[in-house]
């Protein structure tokens, strides 16, 4: 790739970057920095066999200089999403650590000084890149990209948006460490000779201020930022924007409309992935939900056994070979609608999260015996999607829970995960259970696991106080006024609620049986309201530790009464009715 | 000030839907992000918005001082009090 293809600046005094520290960096200055970085890399890389450099910078200008220098020195640049310890450990065969790598002592944090000598500029850029899928949880996939591939997509984007983006400075609320930011806020402005801002904005108010300074401007955004707005920000300054791009995941219709109302711009959404690059675009003006393929992109569908909706297949000049996405689609003419993902990789706030990776990390904690992790969707109680963890504690963990309480234990587990995971991949909601619930087929489908998170916690009995559940079954709702369930239990001798009743003849106290009935009623039958009384309570035979028992539950929705019965074979241990009322 | 500290703890728990966390669990001096309470970047966005809406204060997230303001509940309380001109 030639110099002229990478850099579109016409004169040495052209503005390349409005740096984070307020400096305005011209093309001449950039070339000096680039030459110095190249000189450094030439000597540093001469001693290394593999020519692989890991690159992470918070600052986009520093990143830009290292990136161009690395490509000019024929390095393979490995560009992960973050600089976490686990991320660094997972990178293989790295010769040079460029930028901020707290866990690597040999990392080169600062750019080499540019005024020491007159250094030569590279004329061709033959290096390659390795990007990563937007995983935040330790096992993102690496995707190799060549510079010609990336530039092919930029050519297509430029053709699509030439008029709108002409002369515009680029300000971004997304990182350049991902393909979308790398293309939209860095490589594209470089190649079309436009300036970019060196900082990644956290605050939209500050971005709008700077847009006025750098006008005309573009905002490279994502749904995470566009969905969190304050009406009081100086939105009138959005008049200095020529457009707002959004990528990383579909933007909700309400967010698109709200941004249009506040800023006067319907966000231009780009659909794509690290594997495929850009695929299509849409604007949700006039209620449109359909995506239009970018010029040069060939789309087809692939139907596989597991998913009833076909998956999207992509072919384009910037994909090495045809690629089947995990996105379900329905075509309407040339355009298509996205119908959700077919696999079990979760996506929260634009970050792909491998649930199995979180589970594996949790299971490695000495406090944990086993764990399942799932996505709990946004609802009236949760303002966003979060991860929930269903955990079976080890003996050490159970002891911690008993002695120090749930909130301390949760904090210990979150701290355990923090070094290896992005914040959004750390579970927010925790349930400690005797064992992971399974259905009759021995599987743990998501719906079954969800039940543990959806019932009201205020009645729940600590896991350590519960008997072992050998089998739990909930009758399908038949539209009648009754819901029922059955639980098969085995009562371990060492439950903390048993000592004292009685040393010579151990029994399960009546109050414990009532607690269990209430607990399983709440969990399996989703009983709303608060406990208000009990009636007809009978203790017929002693229930003894180490025994098995079956608990039968039936809830009358109208009367809000839960009838329960503990029994085994022909023996009935206890029965009664618990009543509830709405708060 | 101690009222404001307690008010902010409740706000943090409410806005971020922190299950299993009571105001007493949040140490006024401990870091809110990363270590300590372990909040993430999306939480920072949510919290910043909630503070702007509730106390009608402006937060310049790009300002280096903002990092200090958001470091702990105590710092946040000082910042809110000062911004309101108390």
UniProtKB/TrEMBL annotation, chain A:
Coiled-coil residue spans = none
Q: Does the keyword ATP-binding apply?
A: no
Q: Where is the AMP-dependent synthetase/ligase domain?
A: 118-282
- Record's keyword terms, sorted: Ligase
Provide the ApeI dehydratase-like domain boundaries: 481-577
Q: Does the keyword Metal-binding apply?
A: no
Pfam families to which the protein is assigned, alphabetical = AMP-binding, ApeI-like
SUPFAM superfamilies named in the record: Acetyl-CoA synthetase-like, Thioesterase/thiol ester dehydrase-isomerase
Q: What is this protein called?
A: AMP-binding protein
From TrEMBL, chain B:
Q: Which domain of life is it from?
A: Bacteria
* Coiled coil region boundaries: none
Signal peptide segment: none
Identify the residues that the record assigns to the Carrier domain, covering every copy.
1-84
NCBIfam families in the cross-refs: PRK09184.1
What's the name of the protein?
Acyl carrier protein
């Amino acid at each position: 790739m030639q110099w002229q293809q990478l850099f579109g600046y016409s004169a040495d005094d052209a503005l390349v970057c409005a740096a984070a520290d307020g400096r305005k960096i011209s093309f001449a200055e950039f070339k000096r920095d680039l030459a110095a970085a190249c000189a450094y890399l030439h000597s540093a890389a001469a001693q290394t066999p593999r020519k692989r450099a890991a690159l992470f910078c918070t600052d986009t200008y520093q990143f830009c200089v290292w990136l161009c220098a690395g490509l000019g020195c024929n390095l393979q640049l490995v560009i992960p999403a973050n600089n976490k310890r686990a991320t660094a450990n997972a990178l293989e065969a790295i010769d040079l650590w460029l930028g901020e790598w707290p866990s690597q002592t040999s990392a080169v944090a600062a750019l080499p000084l540019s005024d020491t000598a007159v250094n030569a500029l590279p004329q061709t850029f033959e290096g390659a890149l390795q990007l990563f899928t937007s995983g935040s949880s330790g096992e993102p996939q690496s995707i190799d990209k060549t510079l010609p591939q990336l530039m092919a997509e930029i050519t297509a984007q430029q053709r699509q948006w030439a008029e709108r983006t002409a002369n515009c400075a680029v300000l971004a609320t997304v990182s350049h460490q991902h393909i979308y930011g790398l293309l939209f806020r860095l490589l594209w402005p470089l190649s079309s000779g436009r300036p970019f801002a060196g900082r990644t904005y956290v605050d939209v108010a500050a971005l709008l201020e700077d847009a006025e300074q750098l006008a005309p401007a573009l905002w490279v955004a994502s749904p995470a930022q566009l969905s969190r707005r304050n009406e009081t920000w100086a939105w009138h300054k959005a008049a200095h924007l020529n457009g707002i791009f959004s990528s990383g995941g579909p933007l909700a219709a309400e967010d698109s409309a709200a941004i249009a109302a506040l800023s006067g711009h319907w966000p231009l959404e780009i659909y794509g992935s690290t594997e495929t690059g850009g695929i299509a675009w849409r604007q949700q003006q006039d209620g449109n939900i359909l995506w239009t393929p970018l010029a040069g992109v060939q789309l087809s569908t692939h139907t596989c056994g597991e998913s009833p909706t076909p998956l999207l297949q992509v072919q384009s000049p910037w994909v090495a070979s045809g690629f089947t996405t995990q996105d379900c689609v329905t075509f309407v003419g040339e355009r298509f609608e996205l119908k959700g993902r077919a696999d079990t990789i979760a996506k929260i706030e634009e970050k792909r999260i491998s649930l199995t990776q979180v589970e594996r990390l949790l299971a490695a904690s000495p406090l944990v015996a086993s764990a399942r992790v799932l996505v709990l969707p946004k609802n009236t109680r949760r303002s966003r999607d979060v991860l929930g963890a269903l955990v079976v504690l080890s003996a050490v963990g159970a002891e911690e829970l008993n002695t120090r309480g749930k909130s301390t234990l949760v904090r210990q587990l979150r701290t355990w995960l923090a070094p290896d995971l992005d914040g959004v991949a750390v579970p927010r909601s925790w349930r400690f259970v005797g064992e992971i619930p399974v259905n009759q087929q021995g599987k743990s489908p998501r719906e079954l696991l969800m039940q543990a998170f959806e019932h009201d916690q205020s009645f729940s009995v600590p896991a350590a106080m519960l008997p072992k559940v050998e089998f739990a079954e909930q009758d399908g709702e038949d539209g009648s006024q009754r819901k029922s369930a059955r639980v098969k239990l085995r009562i371990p001798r060492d439950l903390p609620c048993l000592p004292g009743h009685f040393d010579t003849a151990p029994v399960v106290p009546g109050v414990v049986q009532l607690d269990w009935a209430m607990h399983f009623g709440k969990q399996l039958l989703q009983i709303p309201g608060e406990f208000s009384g009990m009636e007809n309570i009978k203790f017929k035979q002693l229930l003894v530790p180490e025994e098995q028992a079956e608990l039968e539950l039936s809830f009358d929705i109208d009367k809000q009464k839960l009838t329960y019965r503990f029994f085994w074979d022909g023996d009935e241990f206890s029965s009664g009715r618990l009543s509830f009322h709405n708060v | 000030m101690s009222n404001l500290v307690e008010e902010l703890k409740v706000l943090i728990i409410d806005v971020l839907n922190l299950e299993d966390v009571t105001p007493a669990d949040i140490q006024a001096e401990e870091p809110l992000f990363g270590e300590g309470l372990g909040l993430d970047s999306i939480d920072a966005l949510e919290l910043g918005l909630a503070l702007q809406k509730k106390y009608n204060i402006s937060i310049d997230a790009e300002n280096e001082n903002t990092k200090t303001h958001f470091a702990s509940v105590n710092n946040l309380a000082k910042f809110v009090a000062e911004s309101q001109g108390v």
